[in-house]
Design a protein that fits this description.
Layout (H helix, E strand, L loop, with lengths): L1 H22 L19 E4 L2 E5 L9 H25 L4 H14 L6 H12 L3 H13 L1 E9 L5 E9 L5 E2 L4 E2 H6 L3 E8 L2 E9 L7 E4 L3 E7 L8 H8 L7 H11 L3 H10 L6 E6 L6 E6 L4 E6 L8 E4 L15 H15 L2 H8 L9 E8 L4 E7 L9
Parallel strand pairs: 2-7
Antiparallel strand pairs: 1-16, 3-4, 3-14, 4-15, 5-6, 7-8, 8-9, 9-10, 10-11, 11-12, 12-13, 15-16
Helix pairs in contact: 2-4, 3-5, 4-5, 10-11
Bound molecules: 2-acetamido-2-deoxy-beta-D-glucopyranose (NAG) (6 copies).
């Protein structure tokens, strides 16, 4: 997998260098206004809603959803397989990797192992490919997340979900194949116990972790990938090799959404739990001051950046770079997003105005799959499928 990633990185850097010069700035635009409710060529529809019943045994919870989405899921896992086969044409490496990933599923903690096995069964897709989707998905999400507080102390949380596996540019359609294939897999989930909502999320069918979710009335949570050169993915290799003391990032966010009962408790779990890879956790609560970005390394918390109405920031905004450092020069979605946020001010911030920010190019780009808007106090979570018609940045 390391070799694959190395080759991948080389390809990415070459593509980045070639495209950046041409593509980066010309397609940036003025901050949008009055774009909500979504319509027009950027809007590709609403994510359908499914109930996931936590009272069912884990192996059965996903049956209905997967039954509806298995064709789309198969298309995507076939594409991923195809990309790997392109890197290792003999087929042997892919075969070994799949075998390893199948074995890996047996090491995943309850209820994730059971759920993933249930998904493989319901979809008829080999277990190794479902595991691959679950492992790689959380490593390759490049995103923009925002928590903001208005002048009355009400909090808003929103995110763009971009999928960053920089492979498979479709020249004819001018799009990323995997991004296009993820859009029809996007769903809004309502996790229930005793017929009552425990939490809600925006997800991809087939993925059992969480990258965006809300516990109504209590807190909201999103996760962004954090690239880290200093041994970023070593925890995942250690897990495969048998040293299993960290937690998968998307499993932690799922456990927090399912079982944490307050903003403070969620913050505590996200700050203290040992992880397999670095990440950003963006957390919002239900009252003034409850918004933060937690910058995580595998083993520790490097920084907690809080909203602070006593002279501190009224919003926190995270893409995929530490907030105290400059973003990568060829991937600066932060500066344009901040520029639009600063214009709105706490007086006019709302889910519709945040939607304006997130659908302004290049915050919106060819990797963007969807935008999710969350208001904890209104128990509201909305996910919109988005596209970025030309002219538009590839990332
Ligand atoms: C809204 O956007 C349009 C088009 O970019 C611009 O002309 C107009 O001034 C904007 N309105 C406000 C209130 O910012
Ligand atoms: C590209 O466009 C063609 C024609 O519109 C369509 O059939 C095909 O599925 C598209 N490919 C992808 C990957 O979206
Ligand atoms: C949930 O609702 C369904 C249909 O309304 C009902 O049949 C079922 O018994 C309820 N389950 C629980 C645990 O209350
Ligand atoms: C949440 O807690 C319940 C009860 O302890 C447990 O069965 C369940 O597996 C937990 N959920 C996750 C995702 O860890
Ligand atoms: C806000 O969250 C806390 C837990 O963090 C909860 O006790 C309280 O009831 C919530 N407030 C409202 C208005 O829902
Ligand atoms: C807030 O929005 C209103 C109506 O669009 C506008 O008149 C006002 O100038 C805005 N306030 C700020 C601080 O931008």
């Amino acid at each position: 997998m390391r070799v694959w990633r190395g080759a991948l990185l080389g390809a990415v850097l070459a593509a980045v260098a070639a495209l950046a010069v041409l593509a980066k700035d010309p397609y940036a635009e003025e901050c949008r206004n009055e774009s909500y409710p979504p319509s027009g060529p950027r809007f590709k529809g609403n994510a359908p809603v499914y109930i996931i019943n936590l009272d069912l045994p884990p192996s059965k919870r996903w049956d209905q959803l997967i039954n509806d989405k298995k064709v789309q899921l198969k298309t995507l896992t076939d594409t991923m397989r195809g990309i790997m086969t392109a890197f290792f044409p003999s087929g042997k490496v892919v075969h070994i990797l799949e075998k390893e990933l199948t074995l890996l599923s047996a090491t995943l903690p309850y209820p994730f192992r059971e759920e993933i096995e249930g998904i493989a069964k319901a979809s008829g897709i080999p277990l190794g490919e479902i595991v691959m989707f679950n492992v790689f998905y959380e490593i390759f999400t490049v995103c923009t997340s925002i928590v903001a507080e208005d002048k009355t102390g009400k909090l808003y949380h929103a995110r763009n979900l971009d999928f960053g596996l920089f492979l498979g540019w479709d020249v004819k359609n001018s799009s990323w194949t995997i991004t296009e294939e993820l859009r029809p897999l996007t769903v809004s989930l309502d996790f229930q116990r005793n017929n009552k909502t425990v939490f809600k999320s925006s997800n991809f069918a087939g993925y059992v972790g969480m990258v965006s979710g809300m516990k109504p009335g209590i807190f909201s949570l999103t996760m962004n990938e954090r690239f880290s050169i200093d041994g970023g993915y070593i925890g995942i290799f250690q897990w495969i090799l048998g040293k299993r003391d960290g937690m998968w990032m998307g499993f932690l966010t799922r456990a927090v959404l399912e079982n944490s009962t307050s903003y403070e408790d969620a913050k505590d779990q996200l700050t203290k739990t040992k992880l397999l890879a670095p990440a950003y956790f963006i957390l919002g609560g239900n009252r003034t001051g409850q918004g933060c970005v937690i910058t995580r390394s595998r083993l520790s918390t490097l920084d907690i950046w809080n909203i602070n109405t006593n002279g501190g920031p009224w919003y926190v905004l995270e893409t995929n770079y530490d907030h105290w450092e400059d973003p990568f020069v060829l991937d600066d979605r932060r500066t344009p997003a901040r520029r639009c946020m600063d214009r709105i001010t706490p007086e006019n911030i709302s889910l519709p105005t945040i939607f304006d920010v997130l659908t302004t190019k290049p915050v919106l780009n060819k990797l963007t799959v969807s935008t999710t808007l969350i208001s904890v106090t209104d128990s509201r979570i909305e996910t919109y499928l988005l596209g970025c018609p030309d002219p538009c940045n590839p990332w």
